[in-house]
Amino acid sequence: MAAELRIGITALMLALVLSISSQFLLVTASSSPQDLQILNAERRIDLTSHIIRVFLTLKIENTGEAPAAEVLLAFPPTEVDRLALVKALVPAGKQKKKTYLPLDVKPTELPNAPNGAKIFIITLHNPLSKGETATLEVLYVLTHSLEPFPAEISQSESQLVYYRDSALILSPYYIKQQTTFLKTPSNKVESFTRVESTNRAGTDLKYGPYSDRAPYSFSPIIVHFENNNPFAVVEELVREVEISHWGSLQITEHYKLVHAGARHKGVFSRVEYQSRPSFSGVSSFKNLLARLPPRVHSVYYRDEIGNISSSHLRTDYQKSELEIEPRYPLFGGWKATFVIGYVLPLQDFLFESPDGRRYLNFTFGCPLADTVVDKLTIKVVLPEGSKDPSVVTPFPVEQRLETKYSYLDVVGRTVAVLEKKNIVPEHNSPFQVYYNFNPMFMLAEPLMLAIAFFLCFVASVAYIHVDLSLRKS
Ligand SMILES: *[C@@H]1O[C@H](CO)[C@@H](O)[C@H](O)[C@H]1NC(C)=O
Ligand SMILES: *[C@@H]1O[C@H](CO)[C@@H](O)[C@H](O)[C@H]1NC(C)=O
């Protein structure tokens, strides 16, 4: 088994190395970046939450001779570590029946990119021929990109943050026309970098339009503004999903939550907090919303002290919402550790694939709304006797196998462990775990129970027997 696994891993690494090097070859072999240009680029940066979402619309033209199937996106090296997700879509269909098709996006190495810019490749379904244009919609999400300044605030102060970016869109291509819009959560903008063509009205800040910018143009900007949204960050989340072929899916989630905003300074006054809620602790948060699947039951919420009763569950046929309230409101730098558990009906999540294997179809990510997870681990505990698990995820995820022993298990259960860093709500999409299952194992648990009863019975009979024989003599 261990040997098989090792061979599997070696094969996997080999495949990975090969795919990386083939990607690399593709980049160098395909049409050079100079053969594409951006006719028009529009970037909208949403700064209203602590999770930053950037929507980029690019109108691209192939000015070269050869067909172009790849479009490159560039990011400053400092942004790459905080980049949780990059998605690209291409509109398809006519005006009214317009739909968007997802495109494949992969990071790559481009050794000659200036200033250490990091490159992602978007692969088009239909290569652009000479002179042809296409419009791409790109979404990327950044975490930990708002720096509280001041770094410490008292209970009565509002939270101010810095956001750093460039007024010009970083790109390996020549950009004919471009504009950048930033949206702040409130009108309270302390300061912002003024460069050529900067405009501000209320919560909207505009840089541009700029025309005819060379590849890799950059113009740093800083915006200093108020943001009192809950900076809810789960430093570590472990979700255990246990499949029981007796009809249920048992979920247990361990959270290590922190308020990642400006650190709280001075003493906390609960009286002031409760009597002046609109002025006191505006950047703190006291409840969290977990979105759970419909038909959830046996929900509990506890911390190291014990059960916490302040949670409310609302359910309808489409979803369930669990509102939880930690024991104290969370201020900047404060932490809370807790566990949420619940049970779901198995038939909503376990299916049979056409090839006869069983599979779990469950949602990746974190159920808490508007939350960043620094490190997520999902452990899918398969029923005893399951074999050959294979995992299908919509994005790359680290995977390994473990064995879990619980009481009444004969050979232990296979656990598929998935790990990923820097998780945002956009990662909440379905993943599958396929496995083979021998129904004979359904009998293992009752058998173990029967054996246990039998042994007890034999033991007690023996005891009585000994007892009786002792008395006789
Ligand atoms: C906590 O809640 C769970 C589930 O509702 C229950 O089974 C358990 O007995 C409770 N524990 C305490 C200490 O109240
Ligand atoms: C998994 O479930 C989602 C809905 O939650 C559904 O759209 C998707 O098709 C399912 N995938 C598979 C492979 O069954």
UniProtKB/TrEMBL annotation:
SUBUNIT field: Component of the oligosaccharyltransferase (OST) complex.
Q: Which PANTHER family match?
A: DOLICHYL-DIPHOSPHOOLIGOSACCHARIDE--PROTEIN GLYCOSYLTRANSFERASE SUBUNIT 1B, RIBOPHORIN I
An example of a Gene Ontology BP annotation on this entry?
Answer: protein N-linked glycosylation via asparagine
Listed A to Z, the keywords are: Endoplasmic reticulum, Membrane, Signal, Transmembrane, Transmembrane helix
The source's superkingdom equals Eukaryota
| Membrane topology designation | Single-pass type I membrane protein
Q: What is this protein called?
A: Dolichyl-diphosphooligosaccharide--protein glycosyltransferase subunit 1
Where in this chain does the entry annotate a coiled-coil region?
none
So what family is this one in?
Belongs to the OST1 family.
User: What InterPro entries does the record point to?
Assistant: Ribophorin_I
Kindly list the residue ranges recorded as spanning the membrane: 447-466
